[in-house]
Amino acid sequence: MGAMERIGEMTSAGAREYLTFRLDQEEYGIDILKVQEIRGYEPPTRIANAPNFIKGVVNLRGTIVPIVDMRLKFNCSKAEYDSFTVVIILNLHSRIVGIVVDSVSDVMELPPESLKAAPDVDSVIDGDAVLGLGSLGDRMLILLDIEKLMSGVDMALAPDVV
Amino acid sequence: MAEAHQESTSSAGDFDLSQFYQIFFEEAAENLDLMEQMLLSLNLETADDEELNGIFRCAHSVKGGAATFGFSDVAELTHQMESLLDRLRRHELQPNSAMVDVLLESADAGRGLLARHQAGGEGDAPPTADLVRRIKALVAGEMVQTLPSAAPQQPLPTPVVASATVAAQSKAVLAPTPPPSNTTRSLEIRIGPLDHPAQADAIKELFRDIEGLGDITVVACNQADTRVFAVETSSTDADLLDLFAFHVSREQVSIKEVDNVAVAPETRYGIFDGAAGSPETSLYDDPPPGAPLAPPPGFGFFDGAPGAPVPVASATGVAAGSSGSTASARAVAKVASPVVQPEAATIRVAISKVDQLINLVGELVITQAMLAQNSRALDPALYQQLLTGLTDLDRNTRDLQESVMSIRMIPMSIVFSRFPRMLRDLANKLGKKVDFVTQGEATELDKGLVEKITDPLTHLVRNSCDHGIEMPADRVRAGKSETGTITLSAAHQGGSIVIEVRDDGHGMSREKILAKARERGMDVSDQMTDSEVWMLIFAPGFSTAEVVTDVSGRGVGMDVVKRNIAALNGTVEIDSAEGYGMKVSIRLPLTLAIMDGMSVGVGDEVYILPLSSVVESFQVKSDAVSTVGQGAQLVKVRDEYMPVIELEKVFQVPRFDFDKSSDIMVVIEADGSRVALLVDELLGQQQVVVKNLESNYRKVPNISGATILGDGKVALILDTGALVRRSRH
């Protein structure tokens, strides 16, 4: 299975660091090297006829950056915008994208042995975009391949013809 | 962090030349282009050492780089070119047109080979064996079969006097009438005694500035107050005296004719080591550039860059002889000889770094504007120092922005330089004689625009050559010189740049265009003004050419030209006089990065309209809008009904304040049609920095880009072309 192989690759590279964030009750982790910065949420400029999870574009020091609300993308029960709402600015393949999450927890290093392959379950997340599950004591961390997730066709972030 | 570590070890383990490939390809392409330019402007009879050395250096640099990177086919080809050029610069061979042809073809083949390597070595390599054979034959001093019957080893007694039209264009005041006969006389002109002998040097300038006047060389003279010149000219004594009268009085000049026997100049003056009649050696005392002639091959690919001599070809003759004969094909004006520019220290920087700099400065300007706005409420008495500081900041950021924007500006010569070769080939093919003149090639334009303007300009120049300029026989019959002139000029006018393509061909016929338009069922009348008639040729599929050639005449093109230029926020104008030629003027904004915009409010949102497409705006009453078939809305503006586009609906703008409604119409024009946009309010006009939406997101329908407003928020720029097209469906 693909996920197993990917975990194999990861473990050979040694432990990796992950930025963890919360969406509702779930805890996710993404490769810290893909993260450019973390900012507070500011209302973006709406783009007409875009999917609902694309909130619009913001000005990031002169660059126009699209903002994706992960809570809407992952069908969370509520998506509120308050002073704790944060935006993680990602740098993926030289494209810059911001994702809205409920809160950022911390940065943690996961030893390879704590990674488990994710079982095939029905979920809004494309199975290919889940790297695996990390267990930290009694907490479960869903490790995302954020690059794959954001470049998916359903994200409508990049031109259709890549 | 593990990943980063891994990468660094893997790249350090094995030194990989491939990271320098891109630099080599760029350098090589530049060198080949430079070589082509120099070859085209090379005057065969009077080729001087500097020109030949320059061409040699280009070939050498390419060869050195190719050998280093292991592109053996490129290295082999350039090696052969180098051998030929080496013999030329040692004067062991006399340059002739066959050599130039072979070298030009080799440069093309070299480009082909490089392109193949750049693409990863796929596909068939262009054949070079024949070229190599021909070069070898030339090196050995043989005549190649393809050589025209012209006898290139015998230098013609005089440089060709064929560029009179060029002179007439550029130096209208001083232009001498070209003499009917080509008889050239050798004169000795003695000027003096003079109080300031330097005055006489101005005479030399005359010969340099006026094309076709002849050649002048200084002759050593033992009287300090007198200057003696040896002149070869076809002008009469009276003409010469008239010209000299600008600088020295008539009494001081004595003209003596020397024997017109073809005696090699060397035997008479003994100071020339160049080719016969080579004036540049003494006219231009520029020292040879310090570039080493034979750098070690391993570094060859670096020496094309800073400080290499750049020829400033201000006028390059392109003429078509039926056999590419030496005389007409090399009708190169004297001013075209390379002038060595002063050493300019340059660095090669990736364009992305410059763009990043521009972005940061743009952000700085916005931050500065915000500070200025917030400080306005402060009491000047209490915060004097702070406010002074802010004023300084304001000035500095503006200066900074200006300097940074200028980095992206490149001279038009980059575009112009590709035309002499193209026209030479084209004129040859069509059997026409064409001189190509460029003006204002130092005019600077944004790099992004330069790239996009090249294709439309190419099209216009081809059109001029194909449709504008007549066949030599027809020109003579019309009382014009048989060589036509195509002029390409660029100049700044206010905040825009105007590029003109002019020709002295047969121009356009008003009647023909009107007839053609009627034939195509277009709505035309005899009352139309000339400029309206000329604009008809921009209609898709319109062509009045009687013969469709493989060059042009199919009628595709002019509409594409217009669309391309409109996409750059530019405009096109045509002026023509039947029998005398035509002129196409293109007006472009200086940069794509900044645009004059008009901001409009819809609901709580702000959109930007390009000011160039806004025609007018007015307030409407709801009863002024009528509908067609309960769907499309139309508004009557004076005598015209135009479609209404409600921005609120197009962009699904949410409404929170239902008291407010859209009652302002902004009429925009694009692609030749007008529509009225319904908006809530007009917010003002400002210059906006255009940002790309696609770099991080995707193309959004009806939106051409985005910009950042003074408060740091993003506003979307409307794509007026798309909105107009939308109303048609």
From TrEMBL, chain A:
GO BP annotation list: chemotaxis; signal transduction
Keyword S-adenosyl-L-methionine appears in the UniProt entry: no
UniProt keyword Cytoplasm, yes or no: yes
CDD domains: CheW
One of the record's GO cellular component terms: cytosol
Subcellular location: Cytoplasm
Organism annotation: Albidiferax ferrireducens (strain ATCC BAA-621 / DSM 15236 / T118)
Name of the protein in question: Chemotaxis protein CheW
Keywords assigned: Chemotaxis, Cytoplasm
InterPro entries named in the record: CheW, CheW-like_dom_sf, CheW-lke_dom
